[in-house]
């Protein structure tokens, strides 16, 4: 934009050389200013000025005022265009430079305007109106641009926060509860918090256990903490997120925060169904409040955590049920020993150095006939317990006999 300002000045000066020059000398002066403005514009394009606005502040504006001063001194503006050049520069100042830059540059603008007009009373009188007008225009534009930059920064921050939340949501697509909690904690740290943890409820909601943490003392990991007070209790009572700051942290005496030095903390409930199953906790060492965007991100993470934990728990339950069904299908229901079905799977895998021992109970039919099937069952159960107690680890006892065996 700075280069465009000088290019516009170069174009205006060159156009004046063609249309307004009154002599060859006047034409050469105008073309010289146009060429100089082009050189400055080229430097602004080539050199890394965008690395800091202080360079604009220190160099570009004074250079522009020098062009105006010498052009007025050597060539001369019309009475109407002279004030407009300052308005033009101040529009650029308001668009590009930080807040209050137009006010800071106002003395330099006054000096530039007045210096070549000391003997022109009419121009000085016009400056009484023109210069404050320039200041108002520049400050008005600067104020609007400052608001716009603030909104842009806010939108960028929001976009970055929700980008991280979206990445975390993809990462927690795990069927392991611990992996889910670890990923949520890591996502909170990536949002800029100094510490984070996941806390699971236990004992019917009377205690909590820290199951995953980052940036907090390892001594509280897996420790069961009372829920009679503290931020976790407050979250359970309210059913929504809670923020505390240093004074309240010290007053409440939260068990979770006994060894911490947080200036601000926030806790968010993690629901599975209608019940609070866990609490997502974050902390900052300074006392800056958690922003609206930050709270929204934590709420989203808590929702994702609840869904992921629910899926993980359902998967774990189904896996345990599948293992139980498999165990039942491969176990003799009376003795608990492996049954014929499992034997048919294992025996074909017997290697040359392995051994297979067959045990037959003598007179077992007589036991059943004499004492009934209850008596026979007791014999089989006693034998199974003996085999389990005496066999080595890795040995597998089977019950493969038919009826009455």
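^ Assign residues to that structure.
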């Amino acid at each position: 934009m700075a280069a465009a300002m000088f290019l516009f000045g170069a174009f205006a000066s060159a156009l004046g050389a063609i249309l307004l020059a009154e002599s060859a000398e006047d034409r050469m002066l105008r073309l010289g200013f146009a060429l100089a403005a082009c050189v400055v514009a080229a430097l602004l394009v080539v050199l890394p000025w965008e690395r800091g606005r202080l360079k604009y502040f220190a160099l570009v504006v004074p250079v522009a005022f020098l062009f105006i001063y010498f052009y007025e001194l050597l060539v001369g503006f019309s009475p109407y265009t002279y004030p407009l050049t300052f308005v033009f520069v101040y529009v650029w100042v308001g668009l590009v430079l930080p807040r209050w830059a137009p006010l800071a540059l106002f003395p330099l603008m006054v000096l530039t305007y007045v210096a070549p007009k000391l003997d022109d009373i009419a121009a000085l009188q016009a400056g009484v109106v023109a210069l404050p007008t320039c200041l108002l225009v520049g400050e008005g534009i600067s104020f609007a641009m400052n608001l716009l930059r603030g909104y842009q920064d806010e939108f960028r921050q929001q976009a970055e926060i929700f980008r991280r939340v979206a990445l975390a949501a993809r990462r927690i697509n795990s069927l392991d509860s611990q992996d889910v909690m670890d990923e949520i904690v890591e996502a909170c740290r990536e949002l800029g918090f100094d510490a984070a943890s996941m806390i699971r409820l236990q004992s019917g909601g009377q205690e909590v256990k820290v199951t995953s943490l980052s940036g907090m003392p390892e001594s509280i990991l897996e420790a069961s903490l009372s829920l009679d007070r503290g931020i976790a209790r407050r979250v359970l009572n309210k059913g929504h997120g809670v923020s505390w700051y240093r004074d309240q942290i010290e007053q409440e005496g939260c068990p979770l925060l006994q060894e911490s030095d947080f200036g601000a903390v926030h806790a968010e409930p993690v629901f599975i169904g209608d019940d609070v199953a866990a609490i997502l906790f974050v902390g900052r060492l300074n006392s800056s409040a958690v922003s609206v965007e930050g709270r929204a991100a934590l709420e989203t993470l808590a929702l994702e955590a609840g869904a992921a934990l629910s899926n993980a728990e359902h998967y774990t339950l189904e896996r345990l049920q599948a293992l139980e069904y498999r165990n039942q299908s491969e176990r003799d229901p009376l003795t608990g020993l492996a049954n014929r079905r499992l034997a048919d799977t294992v025996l074909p895998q017997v290697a040359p150095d392995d051994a297979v021992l067959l045990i037959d109970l003598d007179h077992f039919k007589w036991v059943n006939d004499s004492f009934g099937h209850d008596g026979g069952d007791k014999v089989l159960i006693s034998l199974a317990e003996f085999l389990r107690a005496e066999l080595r680890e890795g040995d597998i006892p089977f019950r493969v006999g038919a009826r009455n065996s």
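The chain has a mean pLDDT of 81.
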